[in-house]
Amino acid sequence: MLNWKKNDRFLCIRIRNQQSEGKTVMEHVLHSDLFRIFPEGYILFAGHEQCVILNLTRESLQMPLIRHRLAPLCRDYCLYAGISSPVSDIRDLHLAYYQANVGLEQAFRLRGEKWIIAFSECVMEQILEQVMGKMF
Predict the structure, then answer these.
(1) Of 2, 21, 104, 130, which alpha carbon lies 20 to 30 A from 58's?
(2) Is 70 exposed, middle or buried (CB count within 10 Å of its CB: 0-12, 13-18, 19+)?
(3) CA–centroid distance for 45 within its chain
(4) What pLDDT digit, counting tens, does each position of 82-123 carry?
(5) Long-range contacts, stretch 120-129, CB < 8 angstroms, 24+ apart
(6) Beta carbons within 10 angstroms of residue 110's beta carbon
């Protein structure tokens, strides 16, 4: 069992192949690699996308270390990744999932300039996009 508590701090990472559709065998190998580099994480595989939930209370992972672990996978498997900001309650995982998606979509928009984008790096652009969309 994970033995997570509802008030632990969590982080979400969403990972997807740079191509429109992944290769199933490669996705399963990636899934195993993610378990290897984040052994205490919870890793979901659905619809050609990997989702990693990390309990930051249980693991002393900081953003530089997370990026350091992800970078070789993104390079070797041609992946993009979006990383949420930490959330302070398990009930906020839906927010972390959304934030990770914003980072992931930004990586797809930039197409190759950056493989891994944290929500904190693109939050202002997201806010402006939402505001501009409502103005026009």
Answers:
(1) 104
(2) buried
(3) 12
(4) 999 999 999 999 999 999 999 999 999 988 778 999 999 987
(5) 120/85, 126/102
(6) 13
